[in-house]
């Protein structure tokens, strides 16, 4: 897979500052992102290494990795991108771990529907 930062939809993704945070618990954090993935696993919505998740929080786009056990995912396993700078901010230390193949779909959905989009694919 080519570098996600070169995806046309990611390049066109802009922050929608006209929408206030709708999450009563505050902005999505890496900790909450990984907790959700574990909860989705516990509910049977994501099994093993299957399924993917992506969300925007502030100026960051978080996307789950491909081929990692979702019940064991940790903050350092998540791919994080800066939307304004169009750069990769964080990636897993193991270079063999790739961003979810759903990342291109997530960026298209988020570009088309706005800042607080949330993608889940199982």
From TrEMBL:
Domain of life: Eukaryota
Residue span(s) of domain Class II aldolase/adducin N-terminal: 35-115
One Pfam family cited in the UniProt record for this chain: Aldolase_II
Family indicated by similarity: Belongs to the aldolase class II family. Adducin subfamily.
Protein name: Class II aldolase/adducin N-terminal domain-containing protein
């Amino acid at each position: 897979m080519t570098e996600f930062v070169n995806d046309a939809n990611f390049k066109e993704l802009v922050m929608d500052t006209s929408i206030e945070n709708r999450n009563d618990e505050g902005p999505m954090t890496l900790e909450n992102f990984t907790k959700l993935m574990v909860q989705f696993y516990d509910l049977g919505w994501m099994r093993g290494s299957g399924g993917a998740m992506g969300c925007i929080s502030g100026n960051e786009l978080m996307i789950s990795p491909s081929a990692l056990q979702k019940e064991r995912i940790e903050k350092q396993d998540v791919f994080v991108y800066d939307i304004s700078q169009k750069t990769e901010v964080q990636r897993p230390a193991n270079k063999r771990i790739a961003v979810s193949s759903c990342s291109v779909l997530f960026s298209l959905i988020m570009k088309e529907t706005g800042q607080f989009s949330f993608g889940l694919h199982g």
